[in-house]
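Justification of computing resources. Each target in the renewal requires a structure prediction run like the one illustrated here; the chain below, 423 residues long, is used simply to show the kind of job we budget for.
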Amino acid sequence: MEAPDEPTPQKSWVQGRVSSSPSQHFNNFMIARSNLSAISLDKLLMHIMESYENNLLHHFLLTYQLFCSSEVLLNILRNMYIDCTDINIKLRIIALLRAWVNDHWYAWEGGMKEIFIEFVNSLNINLEEDALCTEDETLCNKTLLNLLETIQDKELNQDSNLFAYTPPQPVLPSSEVMHGSEFEFLDLDTEELARQITINEKEIFLKITPYEILSWTKEKDPKLAPNVFALIERFNTLCSWLITEILTSKNTKSRVRVISKIIDMAKVLLDYNNFSCALACMSALNSGPISRLKESFSKISKKTTKNLDIMQNMTNPEGNYLKLRQITKATRNPCIPHIGSYIQELTYTFDKSRVKNDKYINFQICRNLGDILIIIQQCQSRNHCLLPVQVISEFLAFKRTSKLNDKTQYELSRHFEPKDPSE
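Resulting structure tokens:
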């Protein structure tokens, strides 16, 4: 009988030499994987250095701040590199640093750059004297210097915002509207409103870091997660403003037009994969004071009613908005997810077990958290190519401050359509 083939390892996250045979590496991988629920930071880092799993490094860089600060991690890697004699491990440490800089630049704040410069300077790298170094040492030295150059370039270009394609021309308000004393919701182009809402929402969404999301999941503290808090507040404010627009309409005809426009705007927001604001629109339409306006909803067109039914199905809250999360995960276009559903999923994962005790890290929990965070980070990697319109942005900023309280909402709703026996 022929001997069974040795397991074929996955492609590594770093292009380097393999210091062990595939079978030995596979065995080490299986042993380490079984102990990921209770592992020290040093052993976890060594496992990452030797691992062939692509997602392992990504999960680590998304969640390490739960048990270790960026400065501490950088100092640990520096000491590992200096003390290490295995060229393969050195190359893997550099590859980890490169992935950290390229994919998680948000973590390189404060004194991180100074720590790295000090580290590179301590090695006394002199490429002009590389003739005295081995080929492996020269490769490491050049790679480290290239990484330092990358860090400096990122620091200079971090505010650049280049479009991947030509953005559509904005639809400006008409001259009559612009020259009037003030314009209203119904005066503005529906698609352009959706675009401007998306621009404002994306600006906040892109600032959110994985650690902010994890911090909010654990403690709900706006000081620890200001951008998550801002995004949630924007969702609630948009919802309240749209309810106010409906209930402050002058008459039934105007109210039907506002409801129809909100439905149309929600569809455009879904077309732009702005799932957060589309859901805010649907939440406004499904709110108690609005959903009871049966007469007003009966007067919207059949086409608009059909679109509403389709969107009701897409944004169904069943299974923690399962359908919407499936659509979000599948999209490859610029996207703004509904952050609340992912926070709820993270909270459930957090509640299962502690991430860290006095000695050990439960990295299996971190991997589960990382799977969720990867979806959010993928949404952040693709920006919408849209041009801002100042006058509409100012209009939206002003309207966000005007909202009715819950009691007034119900009073107005019952005024327009008195309470029926079924309520």
